[in-house]
């Protein structure tokens, strides 16, 4: 049975513990042993589809199967009907199941199927009734109609008023309860509006008359849900919805966890006998040591004193023997301690894993291969989406033509800039050449040195004195000049040389004018 539950965990996305609890719930409800797994599979599909507690749903479905005398292999047909009603009406699957458990007792006393009762409950829930009020009103209606001949005078008068005999109604409930209820509802609707509520009060009582009134005023909706529950489309609806949910990532993750749990449980079951033997042996040894120490306290104390005395007198051999005895006793104590037992168990487990390493390694290799394959598929899909829709992905995918376009654009910009620079340089050279010609035409060159005049008359000698800065100074320029001249196309070499000399002379003049000269010092 444990193996069957584990195998069920490979296909049902519920935890293995939940599945085991569902099996236990089915067994409590009297489900035969050979039908437990099939029952659990159907109930687990319902729990997954309706998002209900697994053990609770299995318990309720077991009750429903017993109340409605539904064979366990046929419980799936009722599950299909409930699921199809859940999908096509306002009612919820969990509420329909609760309605069935509340009305199953009285339904067992008449001729009605689980699908028909599910349709009735789903209709009342769709019309806004709560599960408690819907089931209570239904029980009252079934009891009144199933025992129509035993009804009160007011009840019989109400039946006569709607044109039905109590005997026919009572017999009809044992042949076709659903058809009989429809006849009663249609007969009530034929009455004038002002009399309908009073008749319903006499039929089911004041507290349930409003529920019956909703049903009587919505017979069309009731018939629609009867067709839903018994339609061909309802068959297999639970399996279809379950398969759709099992394909989800969450369900696949739960199935993987179930596989891991199965492996760990199987390994644990292999280790358990060895663990039990080890624990039994240490428990026995611990008890023996404890009993010996308790019964021979004086002897143990004396052994300790003797060992200490021999060690103190230098009897090395006996000291070593004493230490060995102490270590042995310590080992026994450690093994008797829960921590020591745990360490021993871990060692035993490691030994068993080592002996069975090949099948364990094969399992994890297969597991990792499945994970890697799934991860690679997910990554490929993400890459496809990224390169197809994300702007950055589109840039990366089309990088080569984009790079070529930018290279061409830069080449065009560089060529245009070079042409513009050459044009500007030509214009500057033309202006420079025009200026030289203009200077030459107007005589703007260096002025010729004035002609030497005749000898000046001799002046009386006076002591020389400091004159203005640079007067009579002789400056020797020992500086060296280095020029790195790169001529451009169209430049005049002579103009460049003249400009260089002009600047040198300007520097020398500045130096001469900055010197102080005093002839008296010569």
TrEMBL record:
Tell me what organism the protein belongs to: Cupriavidus neocaledonicus
Instruction: State the name under which the record lists this protein.
Output: Phage tail tape measure protein domain-containing protein
> Membrane as a keyword?
yes
The record's annotation in Pfam families points to: PhageMin_Tail
List, for all copies, the residue spans of the domain called Phage tail tape measure protein. 3-205
Q: Does the record carry Phosphoprotein as a key word?
A: no
Segments spanning the bilayer are 303-327, 333-354
Which keywords accompany this UniProt record?
A: Membrane, Transmembrane, Transmembrane helix, Viral release from host cell
* Record lineage: Bacteria, Pseudomonadati, Pseudomonadota, Betaproteobacteria, Burkholderiales
